[in-house]
UniProtKB/TrEMBL annotation:
This is CRISPR-associated endonuclease Cas1. PANTHER family: CRISPR-ASSOCIATED ENDONUCLEASE CAS1 1. GO terms for biological process: defense response to virus; maintenance of CRISPR repeat elements. Its cofactor is Mg(2+); Mn(2+).
Length: 342
């Protein structure tokens, strides 16, 4: 259980929520853990199966506090709110910004700044543990990402932002073979490929990114935003463009870090994959389970949220960023603050 941005996050299975006076009382295994005044809340997010009294749910609805429920894997299930009001206003603000080239550019640029900054930090952290002959290449790639970050400040339109993001992604993935250690060097990586992935490392990346995209889509829906209307990614039928936007800054610290941890520790090997007739490389069933367990475990790890100045878990980061994006769209923040790894 934690609170941030006027939101109560429930993360412990079996938590009971009830109302005493004008306060939400949080109880776990018959022990009172917290009391939060209703007037301090905008939302309640249940990331684990929790029990809420009808009296409290009624009070939340009347006070305009929406309650969101997520499955144990982070999949968005439902959002309970009263007569539509704030949600409509938020989505109208989202749509207005999406149609405003200047404001769209500012948000898209911020998201790419977050992506490149976190990718750079990932490479610098990897450099510390790399063998001597690989350190120079990792440092050079990090230096190139720094240059792209400076160039982003001078971008004047969305196409320039997208172009720089593409160039930076190429520079980033180019040094991935240098992140492999020991027996993991049996994995072959000749650059990013997808739809379908044609080698085991790309299969892992694609699978991890798909999980992260669903987490981001659920977080956005949970705060009342439309996951399909984005700023960096173009709108297309069936595409959750805003979820793809939000996940950009989390790709390196969440998925890429996990992928290389699993292969370098020998938890996943090239033999854990199969090649389909059309050439697509897929995880075998046991390997998929290994990755899913590791992914859910990684979401429990603690991380410092620099902008908020507090510790949180990786699993809460998409939800916190969705809340910050909503505030930026409402005009409560000067701009969108992307998540930054230090």
């Amino acid at each position: 259980m934690t609170t941030a941005l006027n939101t109560l996050f429930i993360t412990v299975e079996g938590t009971r929520l009830n109302k005493e006076g004008e306060r939400v009382v949080v109880t776990i295994q018959d022990e009172k853990k917290a009391e939060v005044p209703l007037r301090h809340l905008r939302s309640v997010v249940c990331l684990a199966r929790a029990w809420m009294t009808p009296e409290l749910l009624e009070s939340c609805v009347e006070a305009g506090i929406h309650v969101s429920f997520f499955g144990m894997t982070g999949r968005f299930l439902a959002r309970v709110e009263g007569m539509p009001g704030g949600n409509v206003l938020l989505r109208r603000a989202q749509f207005r910004v999406a149609d405003d080239g200047v404001r769209t550019l500012a948000i898209a640029r911020a998201m790419v700044v977050g992506k490149l900054g976190n990718a750079r930090q990932f490479l610098l952290h990897a450099r510390r543990d790399a063998v001597e002959e690989r350190k120079a290449a990792l440092e050079e790639a990090a230096h190139r990402l720094s240059g792209h970050l400076r160039a982003l400040e001078r971008t004047e339109d969305l196409e320039q932002v997208r172009g720089l993001e593409g160039i930076a992604a190429r520079d980033y993935f180019e040094v991935f073979p240098g992140l492999l250690k020991g027996d993991a060097r049996r994995f072959v990586f000749d650059g990013r490929n997808r739809r379908p992935p044609r080698d085991p490392l790309n299969a892992l990346l694609s699978f991890g990114y798909a999980l992260l995209a669903q987490d981001c889509a659920g977080a956005l829906a949970g705060v009342g935003l439309d996951p399909a209307v984005g700023f960096l990614h173009e709108d297309r039928p069936g595409r959750l463009s805003l979820a793809l936007d939000l996940m950009e800054e989390l790709r390196a610290p969440v998925v890429d870090r996990l992928v290389f941890s699993l292969v370098n520790r020998g938890q996943l090997k090239p033999e854990d994959f199969k090649t389909e007739a059309a050439g697509a490389v897929m995880l075998k069933d046991d390997a998929r389970k290994t990755f899913l367990v590791a992914y859910q475990g990684a979401k429990q790890a603690e991380v410092q949220h620099v902008f908020l100045g507090q510790q949180t878990s990786w699993g809460l980061v998409p939800h916190l960023q969705a809340l910050l994006l909503a505030r930026a769209l409402r005009g409560e923040l000067d701009g969108y603050p992307p998540f930054a790894v230090r």
